[in-house]
């Protein structure tokens, strides 16, 4: 077993063995631990989980969405990425413009009621088509407000100005790599009440030593089965991309999680995953002709040697 995969598998086991049962915002219920850290050596291979297939292109398009400062799911849907659909869909079905069947608590009801799930899928298909084809509809219901892209690239100041945190931190790495202020934050108390989903990965910090770039993420809350594998790969990719732009090698990705939880309706899936033998990690290939992370497109990022076990499906708690 690769060290990177064992770190994740140990987290799953730790929560099952030592977690506390808690209620949560979604009504699903979780098993949770507070305060957990993993350290991935990015020179050991790209840390994408192999005990189930993780759709890497979705990770790439989501990260590029953040990097571009975009907050509208239209870009994601154009890349067949449905990760953020439910939060935008919720805005639509709670609006005066929505005239379809009642979608209250659609996240739970779609799992429990096959007839309702059929209605939900029909309305979601209508919603996605409208986002892609109707610019006014996309502007009204596709934008998620002050989520990661906005906070990374357009942080609002008390003076009515904006700060491009991501661009600034890259410039700082190049100019003063020994700085202890190489930080990007997404957590803004003022914006929490109006965000579709207040930032889970709240703050990340870079560190340069021996000509290598490392990154530490503080994540306030993590869905360990569905979300955490994405987060590990996303921040590992971000570290590789920034290291490439800055002419550095890669060091470690350190993942610190506040509330690390397993949803009660993911337990069977996790037991299946824990029964599988991990495989060799893939390697990451970037288009080295791109010299700025802001110029990358989805096809500029690819993996070699990714041979995972089959996908394990599980519902998203909304």
From TrEMBL:
Keyword Ubl conjugation among record annotations: no
Catalysis performed (reactions): dUMP + (6R)-5,10-methylene-5,6,7,8-tetrahydrofolate = 7,8-dihydrofolate + dTMP
Enzyme Commission number, as recorded: 2.1.1.45
Main location class: cytoplasm
Thymidylate synthase/dCMP hydroxymethylase domain residues: 8-318
GO molecular function ontology, one term from the record: thymidylate synthase activity
Keywords: Cytoplasm, Methyltransferase, Nucleotide biosynthesis, Transferase
Annotated positions binding (6R)-5,10-methylene-5,6,7,8-tetrahydrofolate: 223, 317
Pathway(s) this gene product operates in, as recorded in its UniProt entry: Pyrimidine metabolism; dTTP biosynthesis
Compartments reported by the entry: Cytoplasm
Pfam families: Thymidylat_synt (PF00303)
Active site: 200 (nucleophile)
NCBIfam families: PRK01827.1-2 (NF002496), thym_sym (TIGR03284)
Function: Catalyzes the reductive methylation of 2'-deoxyuridine-5'-monophosphate (dUMP) to 2'-deoxythymidine-5'-monophosphate (dTMP) while utilizing 5,10-methylenetetrahydrofolate (mTHF) as the methyl donor and reductant in the reaction, yielding dihydrofolate (DHF) as a by-product. This enzymatic reaction provides an intracellular de novo source of dTMP, an essential precursor for DNA biosynthesis.
Subunit and partners: Homodimer.
Protein name as it appears in the record: Thymidylate synthase
Annotated source species: Paenibacillus aestuarii
Organism taxonomic ancestry: Bacteria, Bacillati, Bacillota, Bacilli, Bacillales
